[in-house]
């Protein structure tokens, strides 16, 4: 059924198809990739003219103050967000994990949990865990309190932070 001539045709067909794909890729790269001009500077071979150099989607949104977002926060959504924190923190009184217990954290003095050894970086930044201080810390702990032991990268969404802090505020009744 398969003789030498048939096998040669099949292999030749695959090699020819592969050669066409290679040449197509080469020409596409040649057409659309950066090309060097005579002065040695690289420039885009094909550019799309844009009428307005403004931001994408029109005007930039004005940032809403945290106090307004916190006033409309949803504690139930914050409870779901706390799952990220459970690896290191608990909300049971006196139960420390890798991080201190967060029971009653809103309004509590910074570095005030008995039996937990803090790094000392937090005392330099704040005295009390107000919602605003918690917001800054949860957004980016390393930037807010350089030298802190907390290795969490931060929670970027202001609504998420407000929801989490609102839930933490309800934990101690």
Automatic annotation (TrEMBL):
Membrane-crossing segments per the record: none
GO molecular function: electron transfer activity; heme binding; metal ion binding
Domain of life from the UniProt record: Bacteria
Keywords from the named record: Electron transport, Heme, Iron, Metal-binding, Transport
Pfam families: Cytochrom_C
Classification via InterPro entries: Cyt_c-like_dom, Cyt_c-like_dom_sf, Cyt_c_1A/1B
Organism for this UniProt entry: Silicimonas algicola
Cytochrome c domain ranges (all copies): 73-172
UniProt name for this protein: Cytochrome c
